[in-house]
Amino acid sequence: xxxxxxxxxxxxxxxxxxxxxxxxxxxxxxxxxxxxxxxxxxxxxxxxxxxxxxxxxxxxxxxxxxxxxxxxxxxxxxxxxxxxxxxxxxxxxxxxxxxxxxxxxxxxxxxxxxxxxxxxxxxxxxxxxxxxxxxxxxxxxxxxxxxxxxxxxxxxxxxxxxxxxxxxxxxxxxxxxxxxxxxxxxxxxxxxxxxxxxxxxxxxxxxxxxxxxxxxxxxxxxxxxxxxxxxxxxxxxxxxxxxxxxxxxxxxxxxxxxxxxxxxxxxxxxxxxxxxxxxxxxxxxxxxxxxxxxxxxxxxxxxxxxxxxxxxxxxxxxxxxxxxxxxxxxxxxxxxxxxxxxxxxxxxxxxxxxxxxxxxxxxxxxxxxxxxx
Length: 373
Fold this sequence. Notes:
Layout: H1 13-35, H2 44-63, H3 72-97, H4 115-131, H5 140-172, H6 181-197, H7 206-217, H8 219-226, H9 229-243, H10 251-278, H11 282-285, H12 293-304, H13 306-312, H14 325-331, H15 337-359, H16 363-370
Helix pairs in contact: 1-2, 1-10, 1-12, 1-15, 2-7, 2-10, 3-4, 3-16, 5-7, 9-10
């Protein structure tokens, strides 16, 4: 991770803490979904609105480089580096998690659960391709054009996701006027397989990645927004209101909840962590004598090892709880359920960090498995 405005390697405390916070929420979500069989329990449906948008926003924010010109050589170097750091380790862990022959059936949209690193790699490539025509003349107009293209990509991916089964049924249903029926099925399946390999339905999150690059590009203006207490109060209220919108089959309504809820949520979280770690409030958590120093340090450390945790956590999820989920949910009082799930998530994260530290003792394993330098 690089600091803004220079090439010196420097950690940014509130960014690491924010990444650590969102990584814990990812594990929290997977405990709900894979171990207890309910993705909407214990406020998880509300956390869903900002959890991944935060991750992609930070990724775009850190990827943007001031004065960076996307020459052919620069693009080639970045693509190679990102492929080795993100895709190669993911392929290795996917192989370990799901050995052959099942391994070869894990390259659909969600890549056996490891879709995030694939999607992020595609986002890097998409951003560089979009930036290429404007590499010599960056201006507000180019930002608007790129934003419109981003919205088109995000909305198309979201539409394809919610309409996939309807499209599949449409092509699979024989029709008396469709002479090329079998060819239509083959064509649809071929296109669907290609889009699955590209994890196209996850490209809806590219909106947040691109907004992250804009926030970095116009960082002083963005800071004025997140430092405005009255504005942030409105943001929190609007986010909570949007989170209560019930699910429907109306595309624009669902996309509004997804996009605006994600933008408000990630802005809210960013403002919170920047305030905690850069304002006078930070004096409460900075001193080593403070009782809050340890959780702050832990969040930062988790944020520095997000890739490790992401790749490892599937091996430690307590999926053995799923057959007993009904009994557990009955036995645990509803007010305590979020804390019990959080405790399980923290235990998984701790196991991942311990395993990561052991594996990183070998420079070869650290480089191959986690892209460590």
